[in-house]
Amino acid sequence: MDKSISAIANEITAFEEYFKSAVKSRVPLLDRIMRYIVNRKGKQLRPKFVLLSAKLGGEINVSTLRAASLVELLHTATLVHDDVVDDSAQRRGFFSINALWKNKVAVLVGDYLLAKGLLLSLDNNDFEVLKILSEAVKMISEGELLQLEKARNLNVHEDVYYEIIKGKTASLLSSACAAGACTTFNDADKITKLKLFGEKTGMAFQIKDDLFDYENESIGKPTGNDIKEKKLTLPIIYTLNNSDKALRRKMIFILKNENTNKQKIKFIIDIVKQTGGIDYATKKMFSFRDEALSILNEFPKTDVRDALEQLVRYTTDRTY
Question: Which whole-number Å values give the CA distances from 42 to 1, 38, 39, 75, 176, in the listed order?
């Protein structure tokens, strides 16, 4: 990601300072939790997409920094709430908020982050950015609920899987690109293109995340975790759709009833690999990535466009 970072090095520093200020609270407990969150920042991919999408259209301004902060606030809120829903004790190698301060506090922290993000836009009349990101929040909730609904009967087809990840993951990355673009571009068509660019990138990003479930545990995500949670990801969907009835029945029984048994999880992982589920999902991931790059290449070649391309390629080439 060297090129993508160097293209906006000063802007990232400005964003980080703006974000720190945006999450401050007058409540001591809340302020302590906010510092904990800020000091354990992740890769900040989404703010980088905001900043680079904006810089593709012109100079980054304070509206862009607010858009990047809003995206990071919303993203962090969803992660905090996800950890409560999944009863997860860790996030990015550190204790999760719910592990340290319990679920009630974690839920309220997620609500606070969401409210701070909305007020950040409202107080500065960033109505277009707010509209874009509010749609993303709706789609994230719909995607998560659709996944929960389908996990009950383990009857997920490939098109439904794409609908799920378009909502739960791709929508925020798509909105990040659109929000950044609308702070510098005056051309609505170009903003729409960058929104679609972000969506395709987000689809590839989520498939890569799903593939990590079949890697070793050195990546920081437990192997077979999605299987334990009965999440039907693309590799499993492909395998179920390309197996005989007996094997399909056995896999579904394991996913429903023995999804915490390590030996059974290994059996599922081995079958998915043997039937080509990993190869198929990998091919689809690169297909979405290439669609994103094709849209990006419609913009003039500049250092900023090259930086965005590198960031897209990172989403599929990353090792964690």
Answer: 14, 9, 9, 11, 16
Please state the φ and ψ torsions of residue 91, each to the nearest 5 degrees: -145, 120
Encode the chain (320 residues) as per-residue pLDDT tens digits: 566 677 788 888 899 888 888 888 888 888 888 888 777 777 788 999 999 999 999 999 999 999 999 999 998 888 878 777 777 776 666 777 888 788 888 888 888 888 888 898 899 998 999 999 999 989 998 998 888 887 777 777 899 999 999 999 999 999 999 999 999 999 999 999 999 999 999 999 999 999 988 875 544 444 667 787 777 899 999 999 999 999 989 988 888 888 888 898 889 999 999 999 999 999 999 999 999 999 999 999 999 999 999 999 999 998 77
Distance of alpha carbon 125 from alpha carbon 58, whole angstroms: 20
Helices (H), 154-224: 158-165, 171-181, 188-211
- Residue 258 carries which side chain, given as an amino acid letter? E
d(CA 60, CA 156): 42
Q: Is-contact 229 85, C-beta < 8 A?
A: no
What pTM did the predictor assign? 0.89
Alpha helices in the chain (DSSP H): 2-6, 9-22, 28-39, 45-55, 62-85, 97-122, 127-153, 158-165, 171-181, 188-211, 225-228, 234-241, 245-257, 262-274, 277-296, 303-317
Q: Which of 273, 266, 151, 181 is nearest to 217 (CA)?
A: 266
Give the CATH fold of the 2-297+311-317 domain.
Farnesyl Diphosphate Synthase (1.10.600)
CA-CA distance, 266 to 11, in Å (whole number)? 45
- 71 contacts 179 by C-beta, under 8 angstroms: yes
